[in-house]
């Protein structure tokens, strides 16, 4: 575990090194400022409260979309994976939504619902649900029939069967869907904010893009990347390791 952390730290250091080299080669802070050139603008954005506010708005949208997409995706994927007849009927729907560009969903939600939070969160949720369904459906298809038979023999209630038989087997698939989900959802949230919100990281990126301010675009982009790296390291990776532990036992 310790060696894994060292490897990740060194790898991130390599990215920082490439950034420094690229900034020195460009030799133009208007094109690509060096990392140390962003320290003072970052301090000002934090001191003014702008960065914490816009970051919190984006995190809130990510949290809502993630929770809704995971809940609905797990339920739909479990049904489709265990009910072949339902899977046959709704598999074409899944294919359609998987291949529908995120930009189209965002624009349609804004046109049909309006430029509000409901439309923003719904667009992100609809974009992510098919990906969760695909992963969970494969997990449901891989459920051990012998464990299900044992649950029927012992007359376990549907809730107990779901809790003690189904979910432990689906846990690695849920973890995979969650890790991939966070990565996809926050990117789509930025597009949603870029196109139709008046706050959030995407909104600030759009504003500074119009001003050709590369430094501020990097500050707001990397601030959210840093938060997501922390979430993955402190929450998602330890949880994924824990839910996979029973298979190695």
List keywords for this structure.
mainly alpha, single chain, MetI-like fold, globular, 86% helix
Structure notes:
The chain has 249 residues and is mainly α. It has 2 domains: 32 residues; 204 residues, MetI-like fold, CATH 1.10.3720.10. The protein is built from 10 helices and no strands. Helix 3 packs across helix 8. The model has no long low-confidence stretch (mean pLDDT 82).
The CATH superfamily of the largest domain bears the name: MetI-like
In the CATH classification, which architecture of the largest domain applies?
Orthogonal Bundle
Instruction: Please state roughly what percent of the residues sit in beta strands, choosing from under 5%, 5-15%, 15-25%, 25-35%, 35-45% or over 45%.
Output: under 5%
The overall pLDDT average reads 82
Tell me the major beta sheet.
Answer: none
């Amino acid at each position: 575990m310790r060696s894994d952390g060292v490897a990740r730290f060194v790898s991130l250091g390599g990215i920082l090194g490439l950034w420094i080299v690229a900034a020195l080669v460009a030799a133009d802070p208007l094109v690509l400022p060096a990392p140390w050139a962003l320290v003072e603008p970052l301090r000002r954005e934090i001191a003014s409260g702008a960065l914490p506010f816009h970051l919190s708005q984006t995190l809130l949208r990510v949290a809502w979309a993630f929770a809704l997409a995971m809940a609905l995706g797990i339920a739909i994927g479990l049904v489709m994976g265990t009910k072949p007849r339902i899977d046959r009927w709704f598999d074409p729907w899944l294919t359609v939504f998987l291949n529908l560009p995120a930009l189209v969903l965002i624009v349609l939600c804004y046109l049909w619902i309006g430029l509000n939070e409901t439309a923003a969160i719904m667009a992100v949720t609809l974009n992510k649900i098919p990906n969760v369904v695909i992963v969970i459906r494969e997990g449901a298809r891989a459920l051990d029939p012998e464990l299900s038979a044992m649950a029927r023999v012992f007359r376990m209630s549907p809730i107990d069967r779901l809790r003690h038989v189904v979910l432990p087997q689906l846990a690695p698939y849920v973890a995979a869907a969650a890790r991939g989900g966070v990565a996809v959802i926050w990117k789509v949230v930025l597009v949603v904010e870029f196109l139709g919100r008046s706050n959030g990281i995407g909104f600030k990126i759009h504003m500074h893009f119009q001003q050709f301010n590369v430094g501020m675009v990097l500050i707001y982009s990397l601030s959210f990347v840093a938060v997501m790296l922390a979430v993955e390291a402190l929450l998602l990776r330890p949880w994924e390791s824990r839910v996979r532990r029973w298979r190695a036992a």
